[in-house]
Each structure stands twice: as C-alpha cells, then as structure tokens.
Amino acid sequence: MLAPDRLALATKFVAALVDASRRNPSSWRRVTAIGAGTGIQGDELEQIVADVVDAGLVEQRADDPGLLTSKG
Q1: Do residues 57 and 14 lie in contact, with contact meaning Cβ atoms separated by under 8 Å?
Q2: CA torsion 17→23→27→29, rounded to 10°?
C-alpha cells in the first residue's frame, strides 16, 4: 500500500490527467506537463508516475515513457 502522501500525490496526478484529457481520453499527455500543473517534479514525479502505471490507473506509451493517457 502507498504511503498517505504518495497516495495523495497519485490521486492529484491522475485527477489532473483526467481533467486534461476530458475531451479526448485516448490522447497522450506529457508527464512533465501534468506534473508541472500539479507541482510534482523530479524524482517525486517519476515515483508517482510509476505508482499510477503499476496500479493500472493510466497507460504509459511503450515507445515514449514520457507520454500517458487516462484510458488505462
């Protein structure tokens, strides 16, 4: 189970991705753009992305791990 702060950040990140993808949920979004909008950066951003991908909440593009979709 994720620590409460990691869980809160993961929730914040996924909510921002869903909001950014509202019109087209299958569109790919830049991890850094979503991170910048939520204030999550650097190693913390990498950890949160790994958490939400591992949980199956988002889909990460195989050929460019810097892209995500909320279609996961």
Answers
A1: yes
A2: -30
